[in-house]
Fold this protein.
Amino acid sequence: MQPALPALTARMRAGTLQPILAMNQPSATESRARSLLADDRSEDALALLRSNLDDPACRASLRDWLLSEQNPAEAAELAVTDDPVDHAFRAHLAGDFENAAELARRALQERPDDHHALLHLARALHNLGHATAALAALEKAVQVRPDFAEAWYALAHALRAGGRMNDAMNCYLRAIEQAPGLRQAWLNLGITRFNLDDAQGALTCFEELLDRDPDDLEALIHSGLTLQLAGDLPAARNRLERAVVQAPTDPRAHRFLAAVCNEIGDGETAINELELAIELEPRDPELRAELAGVLELSSRLDEMAETLRQGLALAPGHAGLNLEAARLARRRGQPDQALKRLGAIDPGTLPPRLAQQYFHEASLNLDRLGNADQAIEAMHQANSITAREPRARSVDRSRFFRHVDLVGEWARKQRSGAQASGSEGDDLCFLFGFPRSGTTLLETMLDIHPQAASVEEKPTIESLVELLDRDFGGYPEAIDRLGPSDLEQLRHAYRQRLSAWLPPSDQPRMIVDKMPLRLLEAGFIHRLFPAARMILALRHPCDTVLSNYMQLFDASEAMIHTTSLEGTVRLYDAVMSAWPPIERLVSNRLTRLRYEDLVDSTESELQRLCRFLGLGWDDSLLDPRHRAAGRERVRTASYQQIGEAVYRRAVGRWQRYRSHLEPHLPVLKVHADRFGYELD
């Protein structure tokens, strides 16, 4: 901060400091400073203004610039004359908006076109709730002085407060045009674009600020949030980690870093960061609600209960805390208590993210109580919100179906009976099936085996598919052009990727690499690893479709279609219709497992799979406590069931929803017949 006040005060006492005169004709020095601002030389402009504080126009411009840049304390050091505008500034700073408005009007009686007086009148009127009059004053200020960036910035703020977002963004841009170095204009333009779900536009603004100052805390935080909005979670984490280093005592940095880590699946870091944020803001109930949510995802229910106890003691009516309390009640087998908690929340007052979770939680508990119609209506509300999310709207909804068509057509063209041969991949098992068919349950069971290790939904094969599509002439046609050296290169790349997800000490006899929709890539996998084993997880088509529709998924090119029942059926039909020609190519290394058989005859089915995988039997596979112990957080929609005993309540659930599925039964019957399921 520049020590302006002592020198100014001394000149006031000496009677040499001039009040602000009529500003219709700005001084040459102040005009030169404005030109420097427009040329993006704000440091030079401010230095020029600071060195000419005896010039009333320079002093007023510096005061209003500092105010716009959120530095009211230094601006106040410049508002020391008897001029009515300086008095208005001081009154405003003291919260006396009525007096501030009256003083600004007094200045305007003497100087009707004084753009500084118009700005401070507008500020006072805005705080008094006179939005229309405030806008009129600001519009006149920029008309009188078009290069007055501070007034354009204030006008943008007023327009945004009134909901006129596009007009506000135009005015932020006008402020930037007149003064590209006006940091707050860039920041608030970015925030406005972010609030309008324009991630790319927002990121442009925050990147501009970081180009100017790599340590700009607000730009780091908001760019991290924007990258999270855009789905680039690693980059978002990097920005927010930098923000934490930059401002370790700022609870926002810890809180937003926790949110990104939670979404990535790093629950431990998320919990630690939220605990740090709570230490900094111990009376913020929102932080405790977020911590409770992360603890629930990590199945640390006792810690969740204590966090909720502390939070509800602070804020008994807090919607987020009550939502998490409902979730805890359901996890503990108390759906009635969960619905009672939800009944205390008005979903109409919730932001979209919480409203989505509210309706999903209501659906799950209504389903547990057998209220099918109400459950599916609540899920419809949740999925409608999901479909409107920025990420969902940005997804190419046809791309996944194009991929399915290409893979299915490629498989149909392969020579009948052609099977890859070789010993590569004898230690690998690829577990796949349509989502919600029991892949997570089976993977966690097999992971217990002392001679096995599992990799849960990591893009080991998917990264190779992208490589073939980009560098080998397009996937899946490129599979047919792969020579021995190409295959060896791809095998090496796969092993490198796989090793990143396995503990260094692990030397398992069998590695289970699980990704549900990877069944589409089974033909490629078999060409790459002819000796690898494959398990296709199956479940009744109606239960599978219903379960997918009644879960919340991140927006992806495939799972975005589960936001409607019709879309879920179409997705299932496309994938499972493409499967038969693929299965023909891999049948010599494939076994099927029905979810219903796994829950009805758990031991015998696991014994059969152990024989298929070349593993001896181990009784620990039957203990649900081992399925959660020592694992990182399960990241799929099945995370809540991992520590439970195997149950049958999900078998045949679709019958309660038969009336809702009725229009789709002809499509689903084709697949039910193929896999040996009944629709009666």
